[in-house]
Amino acid sequence: MADVVIIYDSRTGNTEKAAREVLAGVMESGASVDIKKVDEATVDDVRRAKGIILGSPNINDNYSAKMRSFVETKLVQAKPHEKVGAAFGTYKWNMDNLKRLENDLRWKGVRLVAEGINVHRHGDGEVAKKLRELGRKVGEEARKRSA
Ligand SMILES: Cc1cc2nc3c(=O)[nH]c(=O)nc-3n(C[C@H](O)[C@H](O)[C@H](O)COP(=O)(O)O)c2cc1C
Fold first, then answer.
1. Paired strand residues for 117
2. Could you tell me if the CB of 121 is within 6 A of ligand 1?
């Protein structure tokens, strides 16, 4: 059982790369962590974790259809009230993906404990640091809840 689960969607690898930075940040916090592609993530992955971090590319001004389907079905089934979390994304032109994903997480009852990070495609060292910081914060909050 992991304190935190990171669930991401990625077609060409940019969001996956961001997810690896978030993973490194959660590990720095000392929390246990699982990382899953959205196709592989289960209701139980969410149910068992105290913290949930979702990541998606911007696809047509929104977060991806796969991630939207995950949020509306498995996330809701896992009853994520009382969980802490955060969101991240990648984009090329505009940043609506992150705003919408954060909004939907809030609506489903997740308490966002770190500011979301949207990475312009490949990002750089500075953004990598912010992604790790996001992971660390969620890890720390999740550990408090596991204690
Ligand atoms: C079908 C498609 C639609 C996209 N639509 C948008 C968009 O509306 N706005 C935007 O900023 N980027 C858009 N992008 C760019 C992706 O968000 C960006 O390249 C992202 O980093 C891809 O993430 P990935 O490598 O994890 O798949 C689109 C990419 C694809 C393939």
1. 88
2. yes
Distance 92 CA to ligand 1 centre (A): 6
Asked whether 12 lines ligand 1 (CB < 6 A), one says yes
Question: From CA 128, how far away is CA 27, in angstroms rounded?
Answer: 14
Report if pTM > 0.85: yes
Structural domains in the chain?
Answer: 4-138 (3.40.50.360)
Can you tell me which residue has the tokens 């079905």? 73
* Residue from 92, 93, 99 to probe ligand 1 pocket by mutation (most atoms less than 8 Å from CB): 92
Q: What digits encode the pLDDT tens for the residues 97-138?
A: 999 999 999 999 999 999 999 999 877 889 999 999 999 999
**Facing residues of 118 across strands?**
89
Give 78 Cα–ligand 1 centroid separation in angstroms: 28
Mean pLDDT of 83-89: 98
Q: What pLDDT score was predicted for residue 1?
A: 74
Nearest to 99 by CA among 74, 83, 118: 118
